[in-house]
């Protein structure tokens, strides 16, 4: 039997994690991309401009617009004029947006919990440590 390359194995596990997360988001009415935007806005220390959100999400600014349009339509985000620059718009989470962020965060935690349930607590700690070392690697 051929061994699976580490990168292929990591890709498959990551895909299963994303699928489990997306499956939990469907009943909430948000997509994984929308949940990522909510997370970035919730974790920011102040309201963000669209370009700042795009930077935080590592996507091009034009890709943020449909995500924010959908979140605004759902009442999860509102656009406000930036008092420091009236030509700019700030993105502000509504109370419903903060609640949805917490619900989506719980869905992400549950997806990970289900996926890694096969591992012991020590194995999960070791995996966390190893993946953290890879994540901290400087390019």
Task: Give an overview in words.
64% of the residues lie in helices and 12% in strands. With 139 residues, it is of the alpha+beta class. It has one domain (9-135): Arc Repressor Mutant, subunit A (Orthogonal Bundle), CATH 1.10.10.10. The radius of gyration is 18 Å and the shape is elongated. It starts with 5 loop residues before the first helix and ends with a helix.
Which tags fit this structure?
single chain; elongated; Arc Repressor Mutant, subunit A
The CATH topology corresponds to Arc Repressor Mutant, subunit A
Q: Which series of helices and strands comes N to C?
A: HHEHHEEHH
Strand content: 5-15%
CATH superfamily: Winged helix-like DNA-binding domain superfamily/Winged helix DNA-binding domain
Distance between the termini: 34 Å
Alpha-beta classification? alpha+beta
Q: List the total number of helices.
A: 6
Write the layout of secondary structure elements.
Blueprint: H1 6-25, H2 32-43, E1 48-49, H3 50-57, H4 61-73, E2 77-82, E3 85-93, H5 95-115, H6 121-135
Antiparallel strand pairs: 1-3, 2-3
Helix pairs in contact: 1-5, 2-5, 3-4
